[in-house]
Specification:
With 214 residues, this protein is an alpha/beta fold. It has one domain (2-209): Spore Coat Polysaccharide Biosynthesis Protein SpsA, Chain A (Alpha-Beta Complex), CATH 3.90.550.10. Helices cover 22% and strands 23% of the residues.
């Protein structure tokens, strides 16, 4: 079974529609956390959504994770995924028996604020490589070897870090897969979580990193 999981906020409903349209033909199921929505978008069916209060932000996409089995994909509502996305990520999960992403970072030891290497999902990545922190907007894994719960995410809008910490606790690697620039289409929201946290100096992120990167 294959399931794509997404979290969205009302300002991105039109983007969410395009995200869902790109994924629906590729997976068995879609699950969407509607953070602070006061209605259900007409392109979602009964059983495909949950309305949340946005207390955990982007981690809402993991609300369904411990209720599902098979190949799981955490996705973002500002991306349009290519037609071969799911099959490509499954091949990576099977090859490495790990979590696989298209976006990731590695850090020096001890941890400093800036990563020593960043692999971006919107840019070309020439070869597969292991990362410390994987981007959960382009993440895949199998429930047989990685257990993830909504309760694992202890703070808002830091899903990448809490997911990566959980991988480390279960001795599951995170592999960033090679990909071409333009493979994903970025829909360009006005403001992103990354921009908001940059303004705060990434202080909370660094505290979490220090708990599992050593």
């Amino acid at each position: 079974m294959t399931t794509a999981m997404i979290a969205s906020i009302p300002d991105r409903e039109n983007m969410l529609r395009k995200t869902v349209e790109s994924l629906r033909p590729q997976v068995d199921h879609i699950r969407v956390a509607l953070n602070d929505y006061d209605h259900v978008p007409d392109f979602l069916s009964k059983g495909e959504f949950i309305i949340l209060n946005n207390e955990k932000g982007d981690a809402g996409k993991f609300y369904f994770a411990d209720k599902l089995s098979g190949y799981l994909f955490s996705c973002d509502d500002d991306l349009i995924y290519p037609p071969n996305y799911i099959s490509y990520m499954i091949a990576g999960v099977d090859k490495y028996r790990s979590a696989c992403t298209l976006h990731g970072k590695t850090y020096d030891r001890p941890v400093f604020a800036q990563p020593i290497c960043t692999y971006q999902c919107l840019c070309e990545v020439l070869s597969d490589g292991r990362v410390d922190v994987g981007g959960t907007g382009v993440m895949a894994w199998h429930s047989d070897f990685l257990s993830i719960s909504y309760d694992d995410f202890k703070s808002k809008n830091m899903a990448d870090l809490w997911f990566s910490k959980r991988c480390k606790e279960q001795d599951v690697k995170i592999m960033c897969m090679a990909h071409q620039k333009g493979n994903l289409v970025y829909q360009g929201p006005v403001k992103t979580i990354w921009q908001e946290e940059k303004e705060k100096g990434f202080r909370e992120q660094n505290k979490i990193l220090e708990t599992f990167i050593c």
